[in-house]
Design brief:
Elements lengths: L12 H9 L13 H5 L6 H12 L7
C-alpha cells in the first residue's frame, strides 16, 4: 500500500497530535524537515519517525 503525500500515514495518536500542533497535516509538508526537529515534538517517538521516513521514501523523498 502506497502512502499519499496529501495525508499522514498511520502513526500513533500522540504523534498525529504533535504534528497537527506544529502545523503539519500532510506528508508532503514534512519533506526536508530535520528529523531532530520532529523528534523534539511531544508525542513523537522513534517508531513514528521511522514510519514517516519510510512513507516519504516510497515517493523518493525524505526528512532533513
Amino acid at each position: 500500500m502506497t502512502s499519499s503525500l496529501d495525508t499522514l500515514p498511520k502513526i500513533g495518536a500522540p504523534a498525529i497530535r504533535a504534528l497537527h500542533g506544529a502545523g503539519y497535516t500532510a506528508l508532503r509538508e514534512l519533506v526536508g524537515v530535520p528529523r531532530a526537529d520532529l523528534a523534539k515534538l511531544h508525542g513523537m517517538g522513534p517508531k513514528a519517525l521511522a514510519i514517516l521516513q519510510a512513507a516519504l521514501e516510497e515517493h523518493k523523498l525524505g526528512l532533513g
